[in-house]
Structures are given as structure tokens and as C-alpha cells.
Amino acid sequence: MEYIYGKVALVVGASSGMGKACAEYLKKHGYIVYGTSRKAIFPDSLTKNREGTIQMIPLDVTQEKSIKEAIDYIVKNEGQINILLNCAGYALGGAVEDISNDEAHEIFDTNFFGMMSVIRHVLPIMRKQNKGLIVNISSVAGFIALPFQSMYSATKYAVEAMTECLRMEVKPFGIKVSIIEPGDIKTNFTSSRKTAKAALINPAYKERHKKAVETMIKDELNGPGPQIVVKAFAKILNSKNPPVRIVVGFKYKCVALLKRILPSRVVEHVLEKIY
Ligand SMILES: NC(=O)c1ccc[n+]([C@@H]2O[C@H](COP(=O)([O-])OP(=O)(O)OC[C@H]3O[C@@H](n4cnc5c(N)ncnc54)[C@H](OP(=O)(O)O)[C@@H]3O)[C@@H](O)[C@H]2O)c1
């Protein structure tokens, strides 16, 4: 196996779902993997030969101090970070009118600003190495905004924009950047979904919100497991010139194409019918 970007990988949000599955893939292929969870603690000591291992360490993307500590820890032990996979994220349900500023800020702090902070901490290390790979998990919701998921979609649209810019900015430093856009995947994402407080009581949207989220939950629970995302990640990892984005799954590739070619009103009509 060729380690195009090097052997040291940081997977942010590796305690479950896509992050965990990708961390396992990296481990299986001999990488030195640092996975993160808010619940993890720094180990007392590390094994000497860390190739093909996953070391779980604490990291909360909403806390600058926590990000710095995690990254300093890896650099202290490995002297480098070659691959960064950003998976931390959750969904928030509710109509725009029902989402408080605090709830909106909270989801942006995790899904967008958290990702951005981690990247900001890792970039100086990758620039020094003159190589690196950053993969950001976005979503199909990053190019199709779903009703009653406005803030989630907004965070993912923001991830898309930031990632596209970043990709061009860091190219001269040998750092490659890609986006993965999964559709519905069966993970802890469903049980971690939050609901805006007002959405539980405001009769104006209550029934439609409930119906839309029930449809999303059903699709997630009937979706494929995270291995399908691992495939997309592996494709990027093993490419010297990775694509800007990979939409995960044939169905969602078709959805992406239709979104591009159909008039916006038609797309809206279809989404209203589904949700
Ligand atoms: N599942 C889907 O249908 C789907 C579809 C499209 C996109 N996505 C995106 O895929 C990514 C991964 O989600 P998943 O489906 O694998 O869900 P998951 O199983 O719930 O995993 C989410 C991960 O994010 C971590 N996390 C959450 N908040 C964090 C924070 N503040 N700081 C650090 N880590 C945090 C969690 O770790 P701890 O709780 O242990 O800290 C966990 O490891 C997310 O960005 C999600 O938006 C999911």
C-alpha cells in the first residue's frame, strides 16, 4: 500500500458512525490513527509501534483549548499529522421560526466553526510538511436544503463553501482537500438529532415538522451502513489528485444531477411532496 500523504491520521468524531468506520479502515491499512470523542481521555501511555492502531483521545470541536490539546498531543507523539478527516456533526430539526439564536449558534459551533477551528490548527503542521489531506464530511443537505432542517443544511452549505475555498488556497502547499456528501446513512446520527424547543410546542408547524422528520428518520434507518462512506474516503485517500467532492451512493448522485439540471421550482415541488 502506498501512503500518499503519510501515515498519521486524525479522525475527528471517531466514536461512532462514519468516523469510526473510516478510522477502522485506516487502522486495517497500517495507518497510525488518532480518533477523537468528547468522552475519551488521554491514555497514560502509548504503545511503541502505533502502526495499525487507533488511539482514542478527547476532543470537543466547540472548545479551542480542547482542539489545541488534542493536536499538540499528536504532534508531540508523532511529529506530524498527514490526514485529517472531519466527521463531527449532528442534525437539528425545526422550522426557521422555531429555532432560537442559541440553537442556531450551537449547531454552527459544532458542524461549521468546529470543523474550521480543527482545520486552522492542523494547517500550519501540514504546510510545514508540504503535504497533507483534509477530508470534510458534508451531506446531500449541503446542496439540497430540506424543510425543517434549515440550520443543519445551512451548516453544510457553509462547509461546502469553506472547503471549496480552502482547496484552492492550500494547493501550493501540497495539501489536498475533498468533500464527502453522504445521503441517508444508518448511524447514531438519527438518535443524536436535536429538536428546537419551540418546534415541540408551536402548533403552526408542529404536524408538518413531525411528518418531515419522521420521513428523514425512516430513510436514515433504512439507509446503508457507514461502509459506503468508507469507500468514498478510500477513493480520496488513495488518490494523488482527489476530486473536489464525492456524492455517496448512486441514488444521491442522480439527485445531485437532477438538482443541477431541473428548475428550482421543480426541485422544491419534489421536496415538498417527499417531506
Ligand atoms: N448519518 C447520516 O445520514 C448523515 C448523512 C449525511 C451527512 N452526515 C454527516 O456525517 C458526519 C458523521 O455523522 P454520523 O452519521 O457518523 O453520526 P454519528 O454516529 O452520530 O457520529 C457523530 C460523531 O461526531 C462526534 N461529535 C459530535 N459532536 C461533537 C463535538 N462537539 N466535538 C467533537 N466531536 C463531536 C461524535 O463523537 P462524541 O459524541 O463521542 O464526542 C461522533 O463520533 C456528520 O457531520 C453528519 O452531519 C450524516
From TrEMBL:
* InterPro entries attached to this UniProt entry: NAD(P)-bd_dom_sf, Sc_DH/Rdtase_CS, SDR_fam, SDR_oxidoreductase
Keywords linked to the UniProt accession: Oxidoreductase
- Highest taxon of the lineage: Bacteria
Entry keyword Oxidoreductase? yes
Q: Does the keyword Oxidoreductase apply?
A: yes
**One GO MF term, please?**
oxidoreductase activity
Protein family per UniProt:
Belongs to the short-chain dehydrogenases/reductases (SDR) family.
Q: What is this protein called?
A: Short-chain dehydrogenase
